[in-house]
Amino acid sequence: MAQYGNSVGAGVDNTFRRKFDREEYLQRAREREEKEAEARSKKSGGSPVQRQPLKHRDYEVDLESRLGKTQVVTPIAPLSQQAGYYCSVCECVVKDSANYLDHINGKKHQRALGMSMRSERSTLEQVQKRFESVKKLKTTESFTVQDLDERILKQQEEEEDRKRQRRERKKEKKREKAAEEDPEIDPNVAAMMGFGGFGSSKK
Hints:
- The chain is mainly alpha-helical.
- The chain has helices spanning 2-10, 22-45, 97-104, 107-112, 124-141, 145-181, 187-193; strands spanning 52-54, 85-87, 92-94, 115-119.
- The protein is built from seven helices and four strands, in the order H-H-E-E-E-H-H-E-H-H-H.
């Protein structure tokens, strides 16, 4: 065993040891720390982004324009022409209307529009003005029982008109059908023979 240990240690040169220049690496470390400190100060030092409070939408959300339409979907089509609802602000496609509404009301979309998720705090004057405008609307739109009766009568008349027009259209269609079925029979000949026509007995 002693021989084995001596033979292994005899051929190895372990006198060389790598030496580092301490001054060079200290300088590198200082430079790296300075760069990191500058990056941190740029991130935190800038003024925070001021976003607008939430506002009412000034456009109608279009959910029904593509309803009931068929479309050929190809994987190479641009996003705006793919199946689903396309958001041009976030450049994404949402597959159904419920998720689309969730998306346009969500934080990511509102931030892309430059709005925070907080609503504007109303002042006392704004609330008072709102109450006054609502009161004015109520006074101008107040109606009596007589107005209500007139409205009901008008609706009933319109409904009767619609029913009458429907009946007239059905009668016209029946007449046209009867004329198409019996074009060659002369009514005088049919009366002499004793029958009205070969059509069904339904009137």
